[in-house]
Design brief:
This protein is of the alpha+beta class and about 210 residues long. It contains eleven helices and six strands.
């Protein structure tokens, strides 16, 4: 990528991440840090190394950079790499990101490119997968992107944050064409899927029911 092209990218998400350190790190040091970070990010873009940009911010902020630069990344053939890198690198999850934003972002990605960047998808035309959910209303995200082939892992995700209401595990038979990519490096047997409305969901565990057993 030419430097002129790299300068079109919006780096405000990295700057906002740095600014959270105000009051902890001296202003002068923050200014020096930002200048170095900005140079490194631009150099990384020139090399088409979008991962080099994403590591300059908190791993919870990667989606902000992607959203700010969605169509530039798509035009430069970097959107899928950025999404998989940011998704796999998140230390918790993207519950703070609206579902419509995630859905729109993946709609702009090439499924073939996403799959080439993830772990191999197992053989089979359908997969029995599980998703741990909690919270009320839209926060439950029954058709969220992250699923697992491991029921116990889904149950762990459901109860991960004790303050959230009614933890549960849902099960679905998901067609292969709905699988965007797989991630196995965190031992989560994760399938990242765009689950359409035709896929039927079944609740297979709820915390309050489990207590009665």
């Amino acid at each position: 990528m030419k430097k002129e092209r790299a300068t079109l990218y919006n780096l405000s998400s990295i700057k906002a991440d740095r600014d959270r350190m105000k009051g902890v790190v001296p202003e002068a040091d923050l200014a020096i840090s930002w200048a170095k970070t900005q140079r490194y990010a631009l150099d990384s873009l020139v090399k088409n190394d979008v991962g080099g940009v994403l590591i300059q911010m908190s791993n919870m902020c990667g989606i902000d950079f992607i959203w700010d630069n969605l169509f530039l990344l798509k035009e430069d053939g970097l959107l899928e790499k950025a999404f998989v890198f940011a998704w796999d690198g998140s230390r918790v999850n993207w519950c703070h990101v609206p579902q419509w934003m995630l859905n729109f972002t993946v709609s702009q990605c090439s499924r073939d490119r996403l799959r080439s960047l993830g772990d191999p998808i197992p053989d089979g035309e359908t997969f029995t997968l599980f998703r741990g959910i909690s919270g009320n209303g839209p926060a439950r995200r029954k058709r969220g992107l992250s699923w697992t082939g491991d029921f116990e892992k889904a149950k762990w995700f459901a109860v991960r944050f004790p303050h959230l209401a009614v933890p549960a595990v849902i099960q679905a038979t998901i067609p292969r064409e709905c699988v965007l990519f797989c991630c196995r490096d965190r031992q989560e047997n994760e399938f990242v899927c765009k689950v359409n409305q035709e896929v039927k969901l079944k609740t297979v565990w709820r915390k309050e029911i489990d207590r009665l057993k």
